[in-house]
Amino acid sequence: MKRFGVGLLALVFTVAAYAAKNSQTVDLAQPVQVGSTQVPAGPVKVSWTGTGSDAQLTLAPHGKKPITVPAKIVNARNGETAVATVNVNGVQYLQEVQLSDLTLILRDAPAASGSGN
User: How many angstroms separate the Cα of 83 from the Cα of each of 10, 13, 54, 94?
Assistant: First the structure.
């Protein structure tokens, strides 16, 4: 029984360490739209699961219900944490979250008008 408890405790710490590796807090300078939900300015816990084009991004603003959207993970040396947005009819839509060593691109975010010419 004691071995089971030690093994379970080790598993819990491993899972917690893995979860911490795939989450970070990002400070939004302004409110952004994600799908049909507005995310308020301020600290937002960003977490992700999956790899490549098969990822899920979860945004959890303090005191609000988490939002999960499909995303793509791209390995990138960004050097700092930032967000990229696009303005569509006066609304700022979140397009990507840039972390120090990867970028999370929202798959269903609107594109900037006039791009891709």
Answer: 35, 30, 20, 7
List, as one string, the DSSP characters of 65-102.
--EEEEEEEEE---SS-EEEEEEETTEEEEEEEE-SSE
Q: For residues 89 and 110, is the Cβ–Cβ distance under 8 A?
A: no
Q: What is the pLDDT of residues 56-113, one digit of tens each?
A: 999 999 989 999 999 999 999 998 999 999 999 999 999 999 999 999 999 988 887 6
What is residue 8's DSSP assignment? H
Residue 29: pLDDT band (50, 70, 90) is very high
| Tokens 């791209």, residue located | 74
Task: List the one residue out of 18, 64, 21, 71 whose CA is nearest residue 42.
Answer: 64
Residue 106 to residue 25: CA distance in whole angstroms: 17
3-state secondary structure of 54: helix
Residues 6+ apart with CB under 8 A from 104: 46, 48, 55, 57, 71, 72, 73, 96, 97, 98
